[in-house]
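G., the chain you wanted modeled:
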Amino acid sequence: MTQGKLLIANKTSSDSSGGQTIVSQPPPSYEEATAGTSAPCYNDAEMLTEFTWDDRNIRRIFIRKVYTILMIQLLVTLSIVALFTFCDPVKDYIQTNPGWYWASYAVFFATYLSLSCCSAPRRQFPWNLILLAIFTLSLSYMTGMLSSFYNTKSVVMCLGITAAVCLLVTVFSFQTKFDVTSYQGVLFVFCMVMFISGLVLAFVLPFQYVPWLDATYATLGAILFTMFLAFDTQLLLGNKRYTMSPEEYIFATLSIYLDITYIFSFFLQIFGTRRE
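Predicted structure as tokens:
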């Protein structure tokens, strides 16, 4: 204690003898201290953040995990579509029992809301994978039943067109410098237009007022979900303005799988030929 007072006294006397006054600098504020750092990569309140994802290993693992699960989903859907299309007894059974379709639609809607709106089931292993598997089976059943009403050649052709379009959109999203994630407002307005148009078509189409209206709606729907596929792919990559948290691999897989399935369904309405 005495040595500390002597050091302070010596410092004060040396400052006064030299005629110079030492002024201590105040500590920097929080904004100044954190001005050069990037924003956190994850926020519990939002899945989309504005941040620089510097760790490329995390991004590669995240992308690999998403596309691995996505390939399994697409293989399951392709198998069910092939079974409902090529196996006549199964095809006759599902067409004569439409109650299974509405049951699968209810399961699809419930699991989709659980995975997209509730963060706890989406991040808790293994319940997130169980819910995703139920979601995949229900949507695959709906897609397979829709395919059973079309000609086999039409289904195969639409599968090829969907695969080509999805491959081109994925390559475009990986290579382009165009930021699709910054056009969320355009996609939202497009969705609202399609939603209102769908409600109108539900009353117009049964009366056959406009014969070509169904094909026009399907074309716009295919364009919309192709845009959504590019949007979700760039969110997955994380190299644009908005990106997805690496903990949200279930939601990323869900979004891309839903986009591909809807693209196939709309292509089937455009190019498909119904069975006589």
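The chain has eleven helices and two strands.

Shout if anything looks off.
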